[in-house]
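I have been asked to look over a protein record a colleague put together. Alongside the sequence sits a line of tokens, each denoting a local backbone shape. I have pasted the whole thing underneath without changing anything:
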Amino acid sequence: MRLKRMGLTRAFSYSIADETEESPEIIRKDFSQCGIRGNRRGGYVIEDTLEALKKLFGREKEQNVILVGLGNIGVALVKYEGYKQSNLNLVAAFDIDRAKLTKRYNVPVYGMDQVKDIVEAFDVSVAILAVPESYAQETCHYLIDCGIKGILNFAPVLLKVPSHALVNNINILVELERLMYHIGVMQK
């Protein structure tokens, strides 16, 4: 948090609101619901607040993640160096193209037949899915069968999953259209 880097030890809800572009009321309400306590005169102890947030988001310990699909998006995601900042560890990537298994990447690359072994060996519960639309649902089912509980989906399709699994969809076209819409509204 920038406030901590500035040398502050305490922060008020309005300061945190400025940093997060939320209202102070929402900050206070959300913090209260999460058990994060502050007071009117002293605000929130930054170190305690950051620790509580890390625990809340499961960031107090390193979380292992895998990536499936080494097309253009998958390769970009493998090269991304920001995982460590969030205590995430990309332990492996997978692809059906055997030629990609011999290329050099930041992580080991395996065939799809090794997903279950890696998921079990590294206690992985989340996968990043960057496969073509036509393979996405089938790959999703396979990942869940291998023990994956959450999928960050970059394929341009809404995946159907059982109730014990979660999917977050990242559809670049939808996001661009949303942005274009808001720009159009602002220009009127």
Observations:
- The mean pLDDT is 90.
